[in-house]
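Researcher: Go.
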Amino acid sequence: MVSDELGARLKAYEGRAAAVAGVGKDPVNEPMIRHWCEAMGDTDPAYAGPDAVAPPTMLQAWTMGGLSGHTGHTGRTGAYDELFDLLDEAGCTSVVATDCEQEYLRPLRPGDEVTFDAVIESVSDRKTTKLGTGYFVTTRMDVRVGQDLVGTHRFRILKYAPARQKGKSPRARRPRPVVNRDNAGFWEGVERHRLLIQRCTSCGTLRHPWLPGCNACGGLDWDTVEASGEGTVYSYVVMHHPPFPAFTQSDQATDAAGPYAVGLIELAEGVRIVSNVVGVPYDKVRIGLPVRLEFRRYDDEDGALVLPVFQVQEGREGGVG
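Model: Structure:
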């Protein structure tokens, strides 16, 4: 059991710096902006050309070290690692990201050299959730160019000890999507076995995922069109994480234990959606593979969850090499 004494020790980390005068690994640059926009399907002209700015949502990207890590001055103080060590020693070995907030003060432009400071802003009192008992930890990162504050990034995680089940272990439930006022219509459509795509009523541009405004013209008014369900695998990854019961249980909605494929599916309408590719072994998934939408129900015993997945079309397993 996590003790109140631990909570007091954790609270002592509030206000401590996690990074001081960290330096971004790369300056803001056009190739990274282009790759980001291509991956997101964002065609806003503000992000291309001689007067390009970086998409505001890239704010954290300029502070990250990538797969090879930072080669320059990262500014890490060790406080965050110490905090995690205390939680791990107390049995809070699991972690889940809960939410992220960003504030943008001015656009970043190619050539800007980014620096950042990070602080452990708050540690909550001990909380008991369905996942288990632990603490919410919030960090704030201030991003600067020279002396100018250009944006703030807040990231909150729950570090917790997994709940122990008494008696017969219940079936593990799949994680639920975060439904908010911007995407509620999408999930309502999924419940009715309809995949709805937002359409800007000003310029007609389709967009996914759902957003409060058009990323082409900035218009705020929209309606929806229903996807035909036809698509192809635009890209994919194979997940090899340690087994999680909700994804490996043998039932009608589970495809296989072990690794599985998550695809970026390009729909016939031109937008892309991330979902599971099912119907073939994970090592048979290929870019260009034709797929078709279907809806599957999960967790029927404890509040059904309907999700869109993409079934490989019969006889097309060979895909495109």
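Model: Residues 229-321 form a domain with the OB fold (Dihydrolipoamide Acetyltransferase, E2P) fold (CATH 2.40.50).
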